[in-house]
Amino acid sequence: MDFTPEIKDKLHQLQEKYTAMGQDMASYLDGLLYADFLTYWDYIHLDTLLSLQNPKTPIPDEEIFIMYHQITELYFKLALHECRQIAEHENLTVEFFTARVKRINAYFSALTTSFEVMVDGMEKEQFLKFRMSLLPASGFQSGQYRMIEICATDFIRLVDKSKREELNNATIEEQFENIYWKFGATELSSGKQTLTLKQFIKKYAAQFLQLAKDRTLTNFSALYHQLQTNGADVSALAEELRKLDLYVNVEWPLSHYKSAVRYLEKDPVDIAATGGTNWQKYLPPRFQKRIFYPFLWTGEQMEEWGKGWVLSVLKTLKNKD
Question: Which helix (H) or strand (E) holds 151?
Answer without folding.
Answer: helix 143-152
